[in-house]
Specification:
The complex is a heterodimer of chains A (142) and B (381). Chain A has 142 residues and is mainly α. Chain A has 5 helices and no strands. Among the domains of chain A are: 11-61; 64-103, no CATH class. Chain A has helices spanning 20-33, 37-57, 72-79, 81-96, 124-135. The longest helix of chain A is centred in the first third of the chain and has 21 residues, at 37-57. With 381 residues, chain B is of the alpha+beta class. Chain B has a domain at 4-178 and 352-375: ATPase, nucleotide binding domain (Nucleotidyltransferase, domain 5), CATH 3.30.420.40. The chains are: A mainly alpha (142), B alpha+beta (381). Chain B: Residues 8-177 form the Actin-like protein N-terminal domain. Chain B: InterPro entries: Alp7A-like_C, ALP_N, ATPase_NBD.
């Protein structure tokens, strides 16, 4: 196979599941631009491939799964740039000075804004529904 | 006294549970097999893949038995899955699954003394509509609450030799379909969700593996006992038909219902409705359509019937694993016919909704009894 380089012709089939709006757009542009069609489409292709290629090379990014069961508020907090800087700092310290106690206590996950878990106050209609439907039994029926 | 909260939904395909709080989930396929000994070459790494237990419990008809449970049991030729003729409240299998699930949790969270773990739970679980209509809840609660339960882990990775004694401080036995209403209307912190359905009559259709529960909640948040009903009709039989037909036609064995559901619901168009025979892609969409269209028609007939009897219904939620595979077929039938306001929940919710509902009901129970949920056992100690 000849390696790809500037000037190489690339031809490929559109996948059978190409969305309608994509090929319709292609048809429109082809009709309007005629032979100049590829000079408009090629940059689009280059841009997408370039994004993909750079993304794959981002080795200085660490992907960490987000813990399950966080509230929307907590997720917002996690994705805040300042929180991420904090996490970055934490990792740096863990790697560089693993023996030194962490300066930032308590750990970030536990310092998330947490609703008071003492009580589970629900809407009256729903409480009544649950009470009547499920909880209305004699505690010592055995 | 140390006490732990647990909600367990004994589904026909799998047991789903929340332990300690709404963050810790447990999922065990509902398959068991009797097994005294296992021929082991190499022990599994994850205890959940190698559950092998001896259970002694007054809640079992058999009183004592050796079982492999869950993923491991699905590899046994003599395994048992639930069938439509069995009641959950009267079979041993749901109790075996329930106690195994709790013992697994207890081994992680309760202290151990000389290999024995004493665990006390506040349990919230449930029965299908037709069984609770027959008044089986009280009996089921009593059976679990008064009996002694002991689970010994046999050849199970990491847990071998541990003995767990389980006691129930209280057992809530809810009704599957009605419980879903609590989850649909209540967030994890207790605040109101989907406010627009409060004050309206709604239908919750729980399409499961072996049964369909149609629960109607009226505009004043009461249970409609007259027209809510449960039928023994679910997706499992139809999935089994598809598996059989695919085998007859292509000599290709789809390993389990779960694998087939993954084929039906796969989001990748290369994989959805397709099997790979000798490396070549073969579409089985015709076979799938044929079977699921029949069931969808049955389910739609049921919805129509209920809507005719209770014309006040404003929205019908489809939940349960079955709603996931039937969604396109039901939607199509509905577009061609009555155009009812049908709503479907996400695939995640269709699986976890009932277990989550049970947990929220348990939290409401604690609130009403002033049990402080913060002092309960959430970590080992």
């Amino acid at each position: 196979m000849e390696p790809y380089g500037p000037g190489t012709t690339i031809s490929f089939r559109l996948p059978h599941d190409t969305p309608e709006h994509v090929y319709q757009y292609l048809n429109e542009r082809k009709k309007k631009l005629g032979r100049k069609f590829s000079s408009e489409i090629a940059p689009l292709f280059i841009q997408s491939v370039s994004e993909k290629a750079l993304q794959d090379q981002q080795e200085d990014l660490l992907e960490v799964p987000i813990p399950k069961g966080l509230s929307e508020e907590q997720l917002d907090w996690l994705t805040h740039p300042r929180t991420q800087a904090l996490i970055g700092h934490l990792i740096w310290q863990m790697v560089k000075q693993p023996l030194k106690p962490l300066e930032m206590a308590p750990p970030p996950v536990e310092s998330l804004p947490q609703k008071d878990s003492h009580s589970f106050k629900t809407n009256n209609a729903i409480t009544n529904f649950a009470q009547k439907t499920f909880l209305d039994f004699d505690d010592d029926d055995d | 006294m140390s006490l732990r909260l647990a909600s367990i939904d004994i589904g026909n395909d799998a047991v789903k549970g929340y332990l300690g709080d709404l963050k810790e989930q447990l999922y065990i396929p509902n398959v068991i097999a009797s097994a005294e000994n296992r021929d082991i070459i190499e022990m599994e790494k994850d205890p959940l893949s190698g559950l092998h237990v001896e259970i002694t419990s007054g809640a079992l008809k058999k009183k004592n038995g050796h079982y492999v449970v869950g993923k491991l049991a699905s590899k046994y030729p003599n395994n048992d899955e639930l069938t439509p003729d069995m009641d959950k409240s009267e079979s041993d299998q749901p109790v075996v699954l329930l106690l195994t699930a709790l013992a697994y949790d207890a081994a992680k969270h309760f202290p151990e003394e000389d290999g024995v773990i004493e665990a006390t739970y506040l349990l919230s679980t449930g029965l299908p509509l037709d069984e609770s209509k027959q008044g089986k809840t009280k009996e089921f609660r009593k059976k679990l609450k008064t009996a002694q339960h002991e689970v010994t882990f046999l050849q199970t990775p990491q847990l071998e030799g541990k003995i767990v004694r389980i006691k129930f401080e209280q057992v809530l036995v809810n009704t599957e379909g009605f419980a879903a209403y609590v989850d649909l209307t209540t967030n994890n912190d207790g605040s109101v969700k989907n406010e627009e359905i409060l004050g309206k009559t709604i239908l919750i259709n729980d399409i499961g593996g072996l049964s369909t529960d149609s629960a109607i909640i009226t505009s004043d948040s009461e249970v409609d006992n007259e027209y809510s009903e449960g039928i023994k009709q679910g997706v499992s039989t139809y999935l089994d038909n598809i598996i059989r037909k695919v085998y007859t036609q292509y000599k290709y064995m789809i390993k389990s219902r779960r694998v087939l559901v993954d084929i039906i619901t796969n989001e990748d168009p290369e994989e959805q409705y397709n099997i790979w025979v000798d490396g070549n892609r073969v579409s089985i969409k015709n076979i799938i359509d044929g079977e699921l269209e029949i069931l969808a028609k049955e389910e739609y007939k049921l919805i129509k019937n209920i809507w005719r009897n209770v014309p006040d219904i404003r929205t019908a939620y489809q939940i349960g694993g079955g709603s996931l595979v039937l969604r396109p077929y039901l939607t199509k039938l509905n577009q061609e016919d009555k155009n009812y306001p049908l709503r479907f929940v996400t695939s995640e919710d269709s699986i976890w909704m009932i277990a989550r509902a049970y947990f929220k009901i348990l939290l409401m129970y604690c609130e009403s009894k002033s049990i402080n949920t913060k002092d309960l056992v959430t970590t080992k100690g």
